[in-house]
Structure formats: C-alpha cells, structure tokens
Amino acid sequence: MKAVLPAIARPMLEPHLPADLDVAWFARPDEANAMIADADIAWIDMQPTRLVADALGHAGPALKWVSTIYAGLDAFPIPDLAARGVTVTNGAGINAVAVAEYAVMGMLVAAKRFDQVVRAQDRQDWLSDSPGKVELCDTRALVIGHGTIGRLIGDRLAAFGVDVTGVTRSGRDGTLTPDAWRARLGEYDWVILAAPSTEATRAMIGADELAAMKSSAWLVNIARGNMIDDTALIAALAKGDIAGAVLDPTDPEPLPAGHPLWSAPNTIVTMHLSGRSQTTMFKRGAALFLDNLSAFLAGRPMRNVADLAAGY
C-alpha cells in the first residue's frame, strides 16, 4: 500500500509509520502530481488550495483515502471523489481554537477601531480620542455555522458578555435553522460567518441580507469568501448600510491589487490568516493522520470522515 505525504510533516510521521507502508514524500506540486498516480492514501495539502485539486486530478484508481488538515473541502473535487468511493477525512478542529480567537480579535479590532489606531501610529499621529467606542458587553451576535469553530467563538464571546445565537442545519440546542435566521438579522450587532462552503452557502449574504442588518452592525467572515456577494457588500459599505466588515477569506484569493475590497470603507482584510495564526497545525494534523491511518489499516471507523453528499 502506498501513501503520498507532505515532506514538511515527515519528522512527525515517519517514526510512527508501519514498516510495510510504501511512502512517497512530496515537497512540490509536481512531485505530488506524479506520486499520487498509484497511491492508495494521499495527504497532499498545499497552498493555494487549487493545487490540491490539481493533484487529485492525477490520482489513479487505487486511491481509497484522502486526508486533509483543512476543515473546508470547497477546493476538492467532491463529486469525483464521491463517485470513485474515496473516503475523505478533514481537519475539523485542528485550527478551531486559532480561528475562534481570530474571530474575536476581529470583533475587538472593529469595536475599538484598532486598525485606525495602528495607522495613526504609522503616521506618528497622537489621537485625541478613541476612534472606536463600542463595548462587546451586552451586544448580540449571530454565528452562522455553529459547528466546532462556531461553538468556540460563542464560548469566547459569552465571556465578553455577548448574547450569542447560533445557526445549524438541525436547529439543535436552541440554534436557528437555515430558514429562520434571515428574518432576524436586524436583531444582531455582529453577523459572523463560520459555516462550511457549499452550494447552499454560496453568496448567502447578499443585498437583501445586508439591507436587513442594523446600520451599526459588523459582518465578520472567517469561513469562505464566496459566501458573500462582494458587489452587494461593497455597495452597502459605501452607503453606510452596515458599520463595516472583517474579512479573513476573500473571493478570489489572493485578493488582487486594486480590488475594491482593499479600499472599501470600514473594511478590514486579513489575508485568510486565521487558521495559520498558530504553531500547532501540522503537529495536530500529524496526530490525526496517524490515528486515522491505524484505523484505516485495521478497518475501524476513522475520525472526521466528511459527508461528501453535504460537501463537508
């Protein structure tokens, strides 16, 4: 049995791999593309994520399991993998703490307009007043996507005195269902996107949703850029229909120089760094891979098996 694995994780993986596992270590996209042709197992995470889809396009009929540290699978050729009966395990939870912290940081930056404070320092300008005077305490947040990351965001916001409402497909634990949250958008000071990217979530925040939000509300996206209609968002920001937006992901990525989002009023773009704002990604990913490898070889259930029909 052959596995294609990232060279960057080799020191964490190699001492724990079965002796009879044929392992190919890739460091470049062209190596991954060549090595996956006869592989049974593939962990081929690369940046930008389109390189993963490219590599999977070179996979042969032996491929049985694809492992990834990414929680979202929007860059993967899901229909093809499903049709071939390939099992996909994702990285849900690996970066959850870092992403949740990043979301809260974005809200604090927006509340105190710390982005303007930093720019004032760059200008050596001693501000006479605070550019942001919003307190998180006693505000209300809607977290669209109340999975692992969404729940962690909610836990952290509760400590700040924020009243948090989640959105889930099932409406479990008092959360709103997908057909209920739009009617209540005007109740919230913060709208946080933390859902997986699927066809159902594409452009889920558009002109109607932005119009329904409070003019004092902020939109915070730590999920995927394609969940927002950028044209509608840029128009809403220009007109002051919402207070601002914190955008970690964008669509496309990287965001091209000159794109209107760079200069949209009250917009904070953070270059999709939330999941990478930590040092344990590959350590946690390696531990998850090794645990799943043991289960895979023994025919036991693996952790974080994705529902390919749902897209995550």
Concise synopsis of the structure shown:
The chain is of the alpha/beta class. 32% of the residues lie in helices and 14% in strands. The protein starts with a strand and ends in a 14-residue tail after the last helix.
Map the helices and strands:
Blueprint: E1 2-6, H1 10-13, E2 22-26, H2 29-35, E3 41-43, H3 50-56, E4 65-67, H4 78-83, E5 87-89, H5 96-112, H6 114-122, E6 140-144, H7 148-159, E7 163-167, E8 190-193, H8 207-212, E9 218-221, H9 230-239, E10 244-247, H10 260-263, E11 267-269, H11 281-298
Parallel strand pairs: 1-2, 1-3, 3-4, 4-5, 6-7, 6-8, 8-9, 9-10, 10-11
Q: Would you mind describing this structure in some detail?
A:
The chain is α/β, with parallel strands linked by helices and 312 residues long. It is 32% helix and 14% strand. It is elongated. The model has no long low-confidence stretch (mean pLDDT 96).
CATH fold call of the largest domain: Rossmann fold
According to DSSP, the number of beta strands is: 11
Can you tell me the CATH architecture of the largest domain? 3-Layer(aba) Sandwich
CATH superfamily of the largest domain: NAD(P)-binding Rossmann-like Domain
Low-confidence region ranges: none
Largest sheet: 6 strands, parallel
Strand content: 5-15%
Order of helices and strands: EHEHEHEHEHHEHEEHEHEHEH
Q: What is Rg?
A: 21 Å
